Amino acid sequence: MPAYQVCQNFFRDALAPFHKYRQNALLDATLALINGASLTLTSIDRYLPGAAQVKNKIKRVDRLPGNESLHCDIPLIFKGIINMLTQKLSLCVIAVDWSGYPSQEYHVLRASLLCDGRSLPLLSWIVPSEKQQNSQIQKAFLDALAGGVNPKARVIIVTDAGFQNAWFRHIKSLGWDFIGRIRGNIQMRLDSKGEYWFRRQELQASSKPEYPGPGTLARSEYARCDGHFYLHKKEPKGRKNRRSRCRIERKSRIQHQHGSQSAGMVFVTRFMDSFLHQASFGTGNWCYDRHRLVRLVICDFWRLIKSHNPD
């Protein structure tokens, strides 16, 4: 089947409410990228389908980014694509992460659907670098994502370190679940230890995943979030100073080594066994073991999070 017809069939419902000219312009630009164009205006116009002269194709592509009506349609286009990809799913595992951008003035906040060992981009926002990790932007991003996801599906948001308690609380307010890594000098409390608050670094981890139990993250009342904690630490790889000349110690390397040697803490909405069992992860040949599940969350999910970064 020709690529243009595939694009038409795939995006038919998502683009149906919009002007026919903008539909054709987007599909032609997408087809140009499929045919080998790079993501620049001059490259797209040269691969644009049709018998028009190159100068006319250049003008057509040049007008597309400045189309104000198209910019107004972008949130609705994302919403339609998200709904199309998730409407038949009973479980949506979505990875969200901040990524770099070719220009240092901006960063990308992106949500991708994890499916069959790959990630499918659902929603992307370009944000000024000074507003990176902004809680209000992250909340608005979740609201936009919630507007398109199948309301009957169970949603699990998977994040790497860098998202704070306001992020986790807003996910819970949407009725979703989360799996996130915790780093930094933050206080926490375990239900088994009562009202004793301590730093995350006080917990000792080993290469075997551990389940300290349920508890509360953050001591301040306005920032508290309840959930379950899991611990894991990677085994040392024995690569100390092997990449430096003359075995020179470097401050940046020491900082990165300290980050990799520290215990990895995973914060989840509910107990992992019941959490994944109720979510119907896998099929009949799924290896149902608590430590295997924790290792999957720590290793596989983080690898999938990194795999969808554009940088």
Automatic annotation (TrEMBL):
User: Which Pfam families does this entry report, sorted A to Z?
Assistant: DDE_Tnp_1 (PF01609)
Q: Which domain of life is it from?
A: Bacteria
MF terms in GO: DNA binding; transposase activity
Q: Which residues form the Transposase IS4-like domain?
A: 95-250
Listed GO biological process terms: DNA transposition
PANTHER family (alphabetical): TRANSPOSASE OF TN10
Q: Which NCBIfam families does the record match to this protein?
A: transpos_IS4_2
Name of the molecule in the record: IS4 family transposase
Q: Which organism is it from?
A: Salmonella houtenae
From the broadest rank down, the organism's phylogenetic lineage runs: Bacteria, Pseudomonadati, Pseudomonadota, Gammaproteobacteria, Enterobacterales
